[in-house]
Structures are given as structure tokens and as C-alpha cells.
Specification:
Largest sheet: 4 strands, antiparallel
Radius of gyration: 18 Å
Distance between the termini: 12 Å
Structural class: mainly beta
Helix content: under 10%
Strand content: over 45%
Number of helices: 0
Number of strands: 24
Shape: globular
Length: 291
Amino acid sequence: MDGGALRRLTRPPGDHTAPVWSPDGRRLVFVKTVGEASHLYIVSADGTGLRRLTRPPGSHAHPAWSWDGRIAFVGTHGGTSQIYVVEAARGQPRQLTAEPWFSTAPVWSPDGRQIAFVSQRDHPQPELYLMRSDGSDQRRLTTGGVLLRPGVLHPAWSPDGRQIAFVARVGRAEQEISLINADGTGRRRFSTGYAPAWSPDGRRITFVVARVGDAQIYAADVEGGDPTPLTPGGINLLPAWSPDGRRIAFLSSRNGDLALWVMQADGSDPRRLAPAAGDLSALPVAAWKPR
């Protein structure tokens, strides 16, 4: 990521948001919104081969791509949101979760065998769940509620698939990151903050700590230790590790305008890459191309 010229991959009409790379780095899946309807599309990395993946009824968003070519997503229709999965090669979507409860924020385990998600199926407040990739063996992992804003507060798998980081509320305002084993045991507090992102080697987690008029990116060792601030001031959001673990991309307003930045993993050498414009509520805003 050297800050070179921007290259447009999609064109009007509609808003094109939430890009997610395929595991081989050849394609992206994204959300196209025209009017009230949102659907998933796939495009090659050079902008060719645009094709539609989902169709009415309902709207579709929050895509997550597995290593073996399946895409999990959220379909909203008839007042509820449910999780579906579809083969990227023009498959027919299959519904994995059931009405009348909402289920959302699907995240694949690294081996593609399980999907973590958030649902209200057994409790009035959202809880963290796990299911097999075919929708079977759905089970609740947490008690006490989790916070939900897909892309920011969604569950985050450790690279080895053994743990999941998630965000819960403590008191009226504080947001707390917790870790839990994939079998539901060993829940423990990790740090105050939100937007947890695991380093590729699984040893560190970056996250955001927000206060009034201020939001900073921190990093902490998974096994313990005090968090280290990586940003000096302003509003800094959504840290995303490079595949080699050497750099972190993030959004920042440190120069007065919101833009995409990149820094070394220790916070050094921050560089502005491009302005961050458009609908920034549909996440992820930025995604690293796989190695």
C-alpha cells in the first residue's frame, strides 16, 4: 500500500459499499444500494466481470467470504434479518437461521467450518452464537448481551480459530472487549474499547478507545499486558492489519478531514493515502488484498 492513484472499479447508479476481498485476491463482493433495496454483487479486481449475486425479495448486506468460495450474508425481508450462504460461483442462497428472531453479523471461522453470528433467538438482548457452515448445531456462547453494529462491533475470530473477540456494554456507556473460547468456555475481559482486530499471528489485538471528541487506536498482547497507544490524537477508527502483520490501515481525521491512513504495526510512520468519502456507515470501509 504505497498511496498510488485511486482506480475506480464500479460506476453509478447506486451506492457501492462494504467491499470484501475473495481469499485469492482476484474478486470483491460488495453491496449495491439503489433506492431502498441493497443487493450483493461481485466484480474482478480489475473492474471487469461485474455480476449480481442476490435478488429480491428483501435486501441483502454484510457479506463475509470463506476461504473455499462461499459467501455468508444477511437477508432482510418481512421484518426480520436472517443469515444466508451462497456459493460465489452463481449458487442459490440457502437460509441458515430461522424466523421470527433476527440474526446478523456472520463471521466465518478461519477453517470455514463454523460461522459466528449475533441473534436474539433465546434472549431479549443480542447474544453471540455459533453454528456449523450448513446451519446445523446452533448454540449460544454468551449470556449477558453483546453490542451490535456489523463491521464495528461484530465478532472477530482469532487466526487459529480457538477464540472469538466481541464487544459488550459495561454500565451505561463503557464498551468492553471480551474473549471467549469457541466452545463457549473461558470468557474473560480483554480491555475497554471496541472494533477488535487480531494480528495475523494471533498475538496482539488492536482496538479503539473513544472518549468525547477523541478516539485512539491501541494494541495489547492477547496474553496480557498494558495496552499501547498507536495514534497521537484526533479521531482514529477501524484498525485493519495487513496480511503480513507489518502495517495497520485505519481511518483518521488528524489533519482535519477524514481519510484512509496506514502506519507501521508499532504506530510509527503514519501516512495519509486517500480521502474517505461516501457512506461510511456501511462497513468495512477498507480491506487489505490477501497475500
